Amino acid sequence: MKALKIGRVKLYDSDPEVLSALANSGLSVVIAVKNEEIPTVASSILNADEWVKRSVLAHYPATRINAVTVGNEILTDYNNRDRWSKLVPAMQNIHSSLVRWNLNKRIKVTTTVAMDALNSSSAPSLARFRDDIAESVMKPLLRFMSNSKSFYFVNVYPYFAWASNANKVPVDYAIFGAAKAAVEDGGLKYTDMLSAQLDANLAAMEKLGYPHVKMAISETGWPASGGPGANVDLAATYNRRVVVRMLANPPLGTPRRPSTFVPTYLFALFDAYNKKHGTTRNWGLLYPNGSQVYPVDMTGKLTDSESLKSIRPFPARPTPIRSSISKPSPLTGSYPSPVPSYYSGPPTLVNPPAASPSTDNIPFSSPIPSAHPNPHPTSPVPPYSPSPISTSPPTFPPPIVNYPPPCMPYPPTTPITTPPFAPYPPSNPTVPYTPNPPSTTPYSPYPPSTPSTPSGHSLWCVAKPTVPNSVLEQAMNYACGAGADCKSIQPNGLCFSPDTMVAHASFAFNSYWQKNKGIGGTCDFGGTAMVITMDPSYEGCHFDVNN
After folding, report:
1. CA dihedral 292, 295, 301, 302 (to 10 degrees)
2. Half-sphere exposure of 513 (CA within 13 A, CB side)
């Protein structure tokens, strides 16, 4: 990826092996909550904390995580419609956990949506979200993105729209080659299909009352073989022209939102030889063994003729090597989890020009490749210059007033200040847990005073997800022995599930604190607990609150 001048990678899961491999690489990384994990994460803030602890805190900042996508095209999956209503709650829980660790400014939360979230329309301005998701899912989703200043991630493929109607739609319109507008819509002229597809999403967002939510292309690309118009020349031309367009300075934007930078990921980094024959396996810039399918210009400087000249002498697609198919390396697609049938690899992000003023506060302002259980989409980026690898343990970013975009090229190097009611810093593999200094009265119910309730907020006491289980168990046993209601966390109790130490300790801590805070009891438990403002109750398990 460094040789291709890629500075960022987008994954479709949070595989610890891959995240460890990306540590100290200088690459910015987007990770994902898998579709099947959404119900669990949505059910409880404690489950979200566990996910953040395992997938973010265990790797950040050595691995430069800048965003979390919750699910991938789940609104396309009609076989699991029950997950649709859980999407936004899951996003909110992940976001709330990141807020607790003061990481919400650096790590944004989003999801990816396919073009089939829109109803069919004859013009971009007429586009609307499907009736079955518009009010119930999309409106609260856009509200969340607007409030959290996140991006709307959309997977956009002009190839499929063109290939399904190739006898009527000129290929030049699909690959940014049209000499004049092919579509006119209320005074707006479209010379390329990608802009029309993006503006259809913008029009649908406007109809729900959210015209200013930022947009990013989470996947786009062109297959090199396996279908009509799927060849190396068109694939190289499309991807090169996407790079040129997205690196334009000043930014081009779209007719509906001109002069606006649109962060873009190219799909995919690798071909997916574990897929069936056809276009599904041939979107990669690289073969599974790491060799190029065709030369890739990620600078946006080559002309069409120069690009094609460098492509045609390339050798024919090799016969796949069995070992590279059955056991690819972590960065070429060895993932234990199921992969969507259409997926062929991680996407890469197109970076905006460094001098462009319009990239302020853009979380994905540099190229980002993505790593998925199969080949991934990739995006163009300015020349990559990694910082020297330090022999000292990684350090946490510093407190700042104007936070950089989540995809900042090089994170700060001083410690993060802890957010209100979360006095425990994020964990890191190189930073061991250090408990509070021991006192003469362990877990005293009368330590220093607890923060007062903010105006209009209730407070709950929960376990810090970074504390080792053995330490939490001691603190939980104290709480249970001192009057906490611990029957509910016994087997068959309403709060026994999830059967984790963090969940059980959180219930015990909260029960003890709610009963005793009026007489001086605090949410401390030897430094293993913290106060939160979001109700951790879930399903049949209720956490008491006494304001």
Report:
1. -170
2. 30
Q: Are 319 and 364 in contact (CB under 8 A)?
A: no
Q: Which two tokens stand for residue 195?
A: 């802009």
Q: Which one of the listed residues 36, 50, 219, 473 is annotated catalytic?
A: 219
Other CB atoms closer than 10 Å to residue 190's CB: what's the count? 22
Alpha carbon 253 to its chain's center: 23
Please say whether the beta carbons of 100 and 422 come within 8 A.
yes
pLDDT of residue 447: 35
Which residues, at least 6 apart from 156, have a Cβ–Cβ distance to it below 8 Å? 115, 194, 197, 198, 217, 219, 220
- Residue at 442: amino acid letter: P
Cβ(331)–Cβ(21) below 8 Å:
yes
Of 186, 197, 214, the residue nearest 158 (C-alpha): 197
**DSSP state letter for 292:** B
* Token pair 């403002």 in the structure block, residue: 533
User: Is the distance from CB of 198 to CB of 264 less than 8 angstroms?
Assistant: no
The C-alpha atoms of residue 117 and residue 81 are separated, in whole angstroms, by 13
Task: State yes or no: is 73 an active-site residue.
Answer: yes
* pTM, full prediction: 0.69
Report the C-alpha gap between 88 and 389 in whole angstroms. Answer: 38
> What's phi and psi for 270, nearest 5 deg?
-125, 150
Separation between Cα atoms, residue 229 and residue 235, nearest integer Å: 9
Q: Which of 36, 37, 73, 539 is catalytic?
A: 73
- Could you list the beta-strand ranges (E) of 246-317: 264-266
Interstrand relation of 214-220 and 188-190 (parallel, antiparallel or unpaired): unpaired
8 Å CB contact between 80 and 39: no
Which residues are bridge partners to 72 per DSSP?
Answer: 112
Tens-digit pLDDT profile for residues 362-372: 233 223 333 33
Percent of the chain that is helix, strand, coil (3-state, to 5): 30, 15, 55
Task: Give the model confidence (pLDDT) of 281-332 as tens digits.
Answer: 899 999 888 889 988 778 777 777 776 666 554 444 443 333 333 333 223 2
Nearest C-alpha neighbor of 359 from the set 218, 264, 221, 219: 264
From CA 174, how far away is CA 160, in angstroms rounded?
10
Give me the pLDDT at residue 8, please.
81
Within 10 A of 242 (CB to CB), how many other CB atoms are there?
Answer: 26
The per-residue pLDDT of the chain, averaged, comes to 77
Residue at token pair 């007033």: 401
Question: Which of 20-34, 397-411, 444-458, 499-513 has the lowest average pLDDT?
Answer: 397-411
Question: Is 219 marked active-site?
Answer: yes
